[in-house]
Amino acid sequence: MQLAIFGGEPACKDFIPYGTQYIDEDDINAVVNVLKSQFLTTGPSIELLEKKICEITNAKYAVALSNGTASLHVACLAAGLKKGDEVIVSSMTFVASANVILYCGATPVFADIDKETWNIDPKSVEEKITSKTKAIIAVDFAGQAVALNEIKEICTKHNLILIEDAAHSIGTEYDNKPVGSMADMTIFSFHPVKTVTAGEGGAVTTNSEELYKKINMFKYHGITRDKKNFINEDEGSWYYEQQLLGFNYRITDIQCTLLNSQLNKMGNFAKRRKEIVEMYDKEFLEMEEISVQKIIPNSNTCRHLYIIRLNLDKLKATRKDVFDALRAENIGVNVHYMPVYYHPYYKSLGYERGICKEAEKLYEEMITLSLFYTMKDEDVKDVISGVKKVINYYKI
Predict the structure, then answer these.
(1) The domain that contains 312 carries what CATH number?
(2) How confident is the model at residue 297 (pLDDT cuts 50, 70, 90)?
(3) How big is the chain by its Cα radius of gyration, in Å?
């Protein structure tokens, strides 16, 4: 058994990761059935999944793709982003949210975060807009919806396309409407640490038929089989046309079948995550040495990540000290995320530190705790005990 950093047994008997998937017999049987079927890809499970995503999000259209990054990429392509365009994007996010802008030849412009909600700050967005701005990619950080009303107003005022990066927030509602139906395009990710998983997988939802058709074409090599849209004369039932340069971002029936089964349990997944968050909040909101993400009243949040923020002025320790001590307590803590432009690649493009001060300050003080469906109450209590143990040791 690993010894805690302060000696003795760790707070958690067994290692508790920050996140993990839950797969049951229904999921396994569903995948086995599709493996025995005629279609492993480009089959009926994909259409069934897209229909189910529309039902969950209230969006008119959904396109399932190979992963969340592919979903972001085709959304940017469908938005018509090109060289010379600028896109305002959250600074506190995984690199994919900005990388897809570069894939299109456009330029990412990083907006700062609200110091309490940790989501993209509409005031910072407004300040970053220029004549070159064409779109906003706003990330629902940790599962909380961004301030959609304010951001949509900005987009309407400046004629911008809004892409909501909801990789963290399936199951979240904003103003009693499910995430996925309010932006011009919304993307989802189904990586194993997310609320539901396809192993890998993603989706784009939209209410625009025009955008839906573009997304489908970019997903599939830029090819159409729709006779009504042919440029040349139809040569027969085998005929299809590549009309633009697309990609192979198809998702398989195997993945879609797993996700269809997972979505049947999403209500239970969301309920348990909220119970764990409530247990954490009850303990941590009373501690002056740490703070947690402020939830806006508009957002009925299905949390993907639970993050504590250290008040380092009240601790005789660095964030790394606390992080290492929590790991020694068998808590699989992580950090989500460093500001995108901190990465060496972005530095090579000319981005410098200091452009998003709130995001940078949060990064220095944040630690992600464990949050996943199969956590038992005792696991949650052990994590709380470990956090309190470490904080009490280091507090001034």
Answers:
(1) 3.90.1150.10
(2) very high
(3) 22
Same-domain status, 364 and 282: yes
Average pLDDT over residues 171-199: 98
pLDDT surpassing 60 at residue 1: no
- DSSP labels, 301-323: ---S-EEEEE-GGGBSS-HHHHH
pTM of the full structure: 0.96
Fill in the DSSP letter of residue 207.
S
Number of H helices, E strands in the chain: 13, 15
Max CA separation in the chain (angstroms): 79
pLDDT at 4: 65
Q: Are residues 250 and 298 in the same domain?
A: no
Residues 180 and 69 placed together within one structural domain of the fold: yes
The Cα–Cα gap between 372 and 194 comes to 9
Tokens read off for 142: 């940790």
Say yes or no: 177 and 55 in one domain. Answer: yes
Pairing of strands 306-310, 366-369: antiparallel
Question: Is residue 236 assigned to a domain?
Answer: yes
Confidence of residue 370 (pLDDT cuts 50, 70, 90): very high
Query: Domain limits at 113?
Result: 25-263
The mean pLDDT of the chain is 97
In angstroms, rounded to a whole number, what is the distance separating the alpha carbons of residues 367 and 351? 25
Into how many domains does the chain fold? 2
